[in-house]
Task: inverse folding
């Protein structure tokens, strides 16, 4: 339905990023997300942006595809930019019109916040674009497994995650079918008052929930029929293993991070 | 309402790595009052084709004319309410679209959206519930406490209640037992005759196509590869083997019969009974000699 939406989508491929161990990717992106908040000048932001664009280049996906794919996020980015632009009273006035004043501080803050946001979204969607949901959950389970010592249900958590990721596209398809069926019965989701459009969602949501419950029941039954009993003693078809490529990636990544902390002031 | 497809192509998810062309320059004309069957395998583009009939999707290139409506890439923003009222679309598993508290409300949903006055809706509900072969007692029940077959009938009643002139059916018998399938097809055929509908049946069952359709269109990988009356299609049957579509049982029988015996029986669109009578006559002729 939303053909341009890339969030959460996986594009199969054989690029360097695809071949990295999912654990490496997960850890790198996790630290990247934290580090974005440490950037405090043009150079450090520049480095992070270059890193993000470079990784997109390595993934062999087109930049425009990703930028277009995060269309719904653009709304938030522009919104937060405007909020900061208009409501920060800091620095010099750079523009003013009958009581509406824009300060240089606001402009800077707006720009940095939206850049942060953009980088975060780009890099995290790069993770899901180059890593299949199964790999992500495997990596997560593996990385969290030390917590099992404290009776933390790592396997169950990973299973829940993989099931929900698995069903996102299915439910999207389902929603598409239902909304088409209701549209042909005269439901109009695009015009009309806000109230009438809210009512128009009911004929979509009720069938969607019913089908989600039916699917959940079927899945539970199928798992039980195949003797599923949780994570204990369970082996895996695909074993994760670090390779030379991962080592290289980590070294480069650490090197970039060192430069990053030198560039900060 | 005449329907005309002119060089219609459709692409799913254009400009992405998942881009996939589902239809390749389809030309197709459907006359008012015709019963057309569109056959093909999963992924042949049948369902994509029929979604054009309601303006749910627009052709990437080419155009679709339905009565006075013209659907092409340029006029995507038009009011389609009237079109959707006139073309009733029965999706696969239509019972999955039920959502109201009672059967009555669910059937009324479509007509109400199309602005039919309440009084008329009540009349229509009584009419359609009978047409689909259900009892009026069912009206006050919740659609979710019905059996699968009943649910489907209710969903179909909901579409008929909008009084469409064209009825589009996407594998309407999927998931029903053989007896239910037969009944369902008989129901559509009766409606086709009684209401003088234009009916477009999408199916992968050659049996239904040969039994009910005036004309059959065969799709394969988004291309129209064969079009004609059942008799024409039977003549081109070698072609059907190439695309792995099975002839109906009766025609397979006829094929074998003609190979085995020294006399032939021409296929002219007869039913099983008519063919049996013909064979009987031929045998008597031979005995007479």
Result:
């Amino acid at each position: 339905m939303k053909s341009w939406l890339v969030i959460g989508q996986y594009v199969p491929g054989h690029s360097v990023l695809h071949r990295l161990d999912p654990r490496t990717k997960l850890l790198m992106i996790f630290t990247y997300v934290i580090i974005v908040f440490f950037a405090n000048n043009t150079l450090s932001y520049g480095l992070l942006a270059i890193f993000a664009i470079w990784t997109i280049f390595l993934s062999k996906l087109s930049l425009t595809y990703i930028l277009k794919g995060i269309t719904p996020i653009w709304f938030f980015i522009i919104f937060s930019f405007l909020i900061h632009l208009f409501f920060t009273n800091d620095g010099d006035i750079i523009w003013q019109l009958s009581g509406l004043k824009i300060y240089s501080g606001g402009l800077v803050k707006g720009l940095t916040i939206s850049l942060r946001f953009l980088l975060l979204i780009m890099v995290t969607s790069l993770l899901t674009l180059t890593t299949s949901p199964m790999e992500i959950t495997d990596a997560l389970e593996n990385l969290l497994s030390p917590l099992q010592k404290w009776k933390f249900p790592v396997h169950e958590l990973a299973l829940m995650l993989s099931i929900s990721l698995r069903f996102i596209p299915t439910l999207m398809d389902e929603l598409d079918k239902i909304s088409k069926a209701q549209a042909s019965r005269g439901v109009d989701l695009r015009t009309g008052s806000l109230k009438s459009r809210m009512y128009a969602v009911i004929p979509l949501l009720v069938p969607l929930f019913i089908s989600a419950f039916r699917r959940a029941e079927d899945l539970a039954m199928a798992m039980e029929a195949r003797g599923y009993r949780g994570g204990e003693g369970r082996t895996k078809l695909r074993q994760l293993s670090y390779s030379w490529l991962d080592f290289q990636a980590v070294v480069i990544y650490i090197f970039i991070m060192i430069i990053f902390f030198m560039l900060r002031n | 309402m005449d329907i005309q497809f002119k060089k219609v192509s459709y692409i799913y998810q254009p400009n992405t790595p998942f881009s996939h062309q589902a239809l390749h320059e389809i030309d197709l004309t459907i006359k008012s009052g015709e019963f057309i069957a569109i056959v093909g395998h999963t992924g042949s583009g049948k369902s994509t084709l029929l979604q054009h009939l309601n303006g749910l999707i627009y052709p990437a290139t080419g155009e679709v004319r339905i009565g006075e409506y013209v659907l092409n890439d340029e006029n995507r923003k038009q009011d389609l309410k009237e079109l959707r009222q006139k073309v009733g679309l029965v999706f696969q598993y239509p019972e999955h679209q039920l959502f109201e508290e009672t059967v009555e409300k669910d059937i009324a949903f479509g007509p109400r959206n199309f602005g039919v006055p309440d009084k008329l809706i009540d009349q229509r509900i009584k009419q359609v519930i009978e047409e689909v072969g259900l009892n009026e007692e069912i009206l006050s029940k919740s659609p979710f406490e019905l059996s699968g077959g009943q649910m489907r009938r209710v969903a179909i009643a909901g579409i008929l209640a909008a009084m469409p002139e064209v009825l589009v059916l996407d594998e309407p018998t999927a998931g029903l037992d053989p007896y239910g399938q037969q009944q369902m097809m008989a129901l559509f055929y009766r409606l086709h005759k009684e209401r003088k509908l234009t009916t477009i049946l999408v199916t992968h069952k050659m049996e239904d196509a040969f039994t009910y359709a005036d004309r059959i269109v065969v799709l394969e990988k988004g291309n129209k590869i064969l079009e004609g009356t059942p008799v024409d299609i039977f003549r081109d049957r070698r072609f059907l083997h190439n695309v792995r579509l099975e002839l109906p049982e009766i025609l397979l029988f006829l094929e074998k019969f003609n190979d085995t015996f020294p006399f032939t029986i021409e296929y002219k669109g007869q039913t099983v009974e008519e063919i049996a009578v013909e064979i009987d006559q031929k045998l008597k002729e031979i005995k007479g000699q």
User: Anything to note?
Assistant: Residues 153-234 of chain A form one domain.
